[in-house]
Amino acid sequence: MRVFATVEELVAAAGDDLGESSWHTITQEQINGFAEATGDDQWIHVDAVRAAAGPFGTTIAHGYLTLSLVPMLMREVQELRTRSMEINYGLDRVRFLTPVPAGSRVRGRVTVANVTPVDGGVQVTYDVTIELEGSEKPAAIVNPIYRYIR
Questions:
Q1: Could you report the per-residue pLDDT of 28-49, keeping only the tens digit for each?
Q2: How far apart are CA 8 and CA 102, in angstroms?
Q3: What is the four-CA torsion angle of 26, 29, 34, 35, rounded to 10 degrees?
Q4: 46 by DSSP, 3-state: which?
Q5: Is residue 83 predicted with pLDDT exceeding 90?
Q6: Cα–Cα distance measured from residue 21 to residue 17, given in angstroms and rounded to the nearest whole number
Q7: What is the mean pLDDT of the segment spanning 127-149?
Q8: For residues 116 and 90, what is the distance between their CA atoms, to the nearest angstrom?
Q9: Parallel, antiparallel, or unpaired: how do β-strands 105-118 and 17-20 relate?
């Protein structure tokens, strides 16, 4: 884990690869819970029998479930200790490249892409690659934007 004591240390890390999180297994229970919470109960996610005969041979995680892991994966890779507030400002770009089958493992690789001063702090855009174990292509590439207020 890369720990930044101050916002200035984070600013100096622009362009740095911060490393990768640990591997996380995507369970069918997670997928079912996400389907229930969002109302997205498409068979490819929740019907194991039908999905077994489908294009992936099993159920797959929702793309948005994969996306929702970004904050957790980032927290394993970096920490900013001195700030009064952290705001999820949005996403610059999201691409889902490879389906995530139930039971597979993912991890996040995080890079500080860009740091811009804003009133009272900085805005940081990250490059997060969600890697899928055993796959040459990542599950997703995401550019989350955070604001850190001093």
A1: 999 999 999 999 999 999 999 9
A2: 40
A3: 120
A4: helix
A5: no
A6: 12
A7: 97
A8: 15
A9: antiparallel
